[in-house]
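tool=predict chain=A
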Amino acid sequence: MADLQLKSHRFRNEREASWRRLDSLMTKVERQSVDSLTDEQLLEIPVLYRSAMSSLSVARSISLDQGAATYLENLCLRAYLFVYGVRSTPLERLARFFREDWPRAVQSIWRETLLAALLFAIGAVAAFVLTSQDPDWFYSVMPGGMSQGRDPATSTEALRATLYHDEGTSGLTGFAAFLFTHNAQVAIFAFALGFAFGLPTALLMIYNGLGLGALMALFVSRGLGLELAGWLMIHGVTEIFAITLAGGAGFRIGRAILAPGDRPRVEAAAEAGRTAALAMAGVVVMLMCAGLLEGFGRQLITLDAARFAIAGATAVIWGLYFYLPRRRTP
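tool=predict ok
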């Protein structure tokens, strides 16, 4: 026993200096940041970490005192997280999401997004043609409660008034919150229903296009088509883009389940789900912007030129943000 204690004491004396050195570097990083270390210190840490791991292995084999063994275990864990773990802060990860992760996820589902947009357009065109030929179709294709008093029975002047009535800021906050909640539900359904091979997502895209087409047909028949376009597009560019992205995310999952290729179906769906989830996380941000534009912008901004200018600006901004080529940072 005396011989074992002597070996333990000698082992600790020989290596404790390197442990303390690694401990001091880890404490410096934890209290300040990685930037506080010099290049030499950064290169020193992996060497000290491997030495500490070796010491821990030997300490366990010679039954080093429990306090020293526990100290080594904690020290090795701290150093492991530094050497192999993610060292970015939450703000850095958030910045990386908006700078790279979200745009790249959207770029990767461009085919599915195009399909969702096409189905949305098919629904809108079909409803426009049907309602133009027979106004009674309006009541069949317009989702319940979405017309908000704008229907074939409404006079032209009343329809015009709905496009330019300035409600002020009173009540618009609640209206914006309602619109965000409704649009978020549509987007989540479009995404989640992709697991059913994408078929319900396709129907939802067409269904959402129907309401737009029917409403456009009604206002065009009263000579208010251009005015309605400005009233809709001030928020519609962002909103429709967000919903089609959600549909594209759903189609990406549906495609992976329907045609997984050489991989197991579950593995293909999991990989597609990670990409689609990144796209969907950003869709929520877009819907918040659309809700604010719809709840405030289109009610407070009544000039057609200003409405179209905002619509065009949002289209350019989203287009460049998502599809402009960019370098991947290390």
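The longest helix spans residues 265-300. Confidence is low (pLDDT under 50) at residues 168-172.
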